[in-house]
Hints:
Layout: H1 12-20, E1 25-31, E2 46-53, H2 56-65, E3 70-73, E4 86-92, H3 101-111, E5 112-123, H4 133-143, H5 145-154, H6 174-181, E6 187-193, E7 197-203
Amino acid sequence: MKEKFIEHPLTGRGRLIYEWLPSNINKLLDIGCSYGYYTRFYLNKCREVYGIDPNKELIRIAKERYLKIKFKIGFAEKIPYKDNYFDVVLLNDVLEHVENEEKALSEICRVLGKKGIVILTVPHKGLFEFMDVDNYSWCVRTYFPKLYSLFNKIRRKKIKIKPGYINKHKHYSIRDIEKLFEGKFKIEKFTRRGLFDMVVCNIE
């Protein structure tokens, strides 16, 4: 088993999302589920759990590991499920990766049933947002492409940008979320965890 695909314990934001999930959910969708290392825990509270991610390799691993969960390749902007299908949709550190926020939110509205709930986490916009490690790679790749290419040659790695990492990651304040969700969802509660991340929960 490769080290990067280890089984993660339910900690940090993943645990907070789990604790805020209502019990006895019928259908739950985990958008940007990676290889399902958090998705697997949601089976304890849901009858049916689904996960989508644009990374084919991660979905392959998820399908091999967690047979009781329904995984598919998919994007937040084009969710491969019918209208009003889910009771809960999760986006754990996903919104900052999507190409089109408005389209993603429109799709989430479409697949959620009446009184559906969205739980999400996003990087917090603030003094320390410059410490977003993923954006370092984006900056070097964008502004110093030759250096980026040389660095990958030294590491003997092909340049392969994962879906969701093509553009610079966005950071959000609670006001940004309110404006983005205005007319679509109502924010019921939120919390900030540390200096870097914010959890926005129960948007119905």
